[in-house]
Specification:
Arc Repressor Mutant, subunit A; 6 helices; 3-stranded antiparallel sheet; alpha+beta
Length: 104
């Protein structure tokens, strides 16, 4: 069977690269609960505003989140709902190695 064209893998690679930092995974996990403004994200992550903004920019550029301006605030939400499934897969406790063999 022929392999799909290389460009087929660009979007998933961009998403995984954006999620390659623990703070961005935590932030994305927080957004599973609903919209979040920058100040809420700062409190959630315990990071400075410039640091949070940089993480948000990376997630936004990857198409994972979108921002909506509300007066002076920008609130973010998940744009790609497949991310919820990805996070759930990786957040589930690892199945012990022996049990994985039995389940195959």
């Amino acid at each position: 069977m022929p392999s799909p064209p290389a460009e087929t893998f660009s979007h998933p690679a961009r998403i995984f690269k954006a999620l390659s930092h623990p703070a961005r995974v935590r932030l994305t996990h927080r957004l599973l609960q609903g919209e979040c403004c920058v100040s809420e994200a700062e409190a959630c992550l315990g990071l400075s505003q410039p640091n949070v903004s940089q993480h948000l920019k990376i997630l936004k550029n990857a198409g994972i989140i979108v921002g909506n301006r509300r007066g002076t605030k920008i609130c973010y939400r998940l744009a790609d709902l497949r991310i919820e499934r990805v996070l759930k897969i990786f957040m589930i406790e690892e199945i012990p190695h022996e049990d994985r063999r039995r389940n195959q």
